[in-house]
Every structure is written in C-alpha cells, then in structure tokens.
Amino acid sequence: MLPESSSSPHHHENDAVKHENAAQASQRSFSERVKATGTTIVHHAKKHTGVGIVCAVAYFDP
After folding, report:
1. The pLDDT value given to residue 36
2. What ranges does the record list as Basic and acidic residues composition bias (predicted)?
3. Does the first or last residue of the chain, that is N or C, have fewer Cβ atoms within 10 Å of its Cβ?
4. Using the 8-state DSSP alphabet, how is residue 6 labeled?
C-alpha cells in the first residue's frame, strides 16, 4: 500500500482539525489545559508502564 500524498483531501482535513484544536486550546482556561495534560500523561503511563516492567524483568531475569 502506498502512503497518501500530501495533496489528499484527508491531509487538509487533518490540518483544519489541528488548527481548530489549537484555537480551542487557546480559549481554554489554564486549569482545563493542566487537567488535559495530566490526563494525557496518566493515559500514556498506564499504556506503556506495564510493558516497560515486563521488559525490565525479562532483561534482568533470563
């Protein structure tokens, strides 16, 4: 499967969504942005921490 070219309609839609999200982010309060950032960090930690622990145990306990 070939990658989509940058002239595809989906590419422009994604740019529009990013622009809209950036505009919305600038209108949100500081506490809302902190909460959204914290939620993202916690989600990332939940998703990746378990894999890291399994890999560390597998490395040190062959």
Report:
1. 96
2. 10-21
3. N
4. T
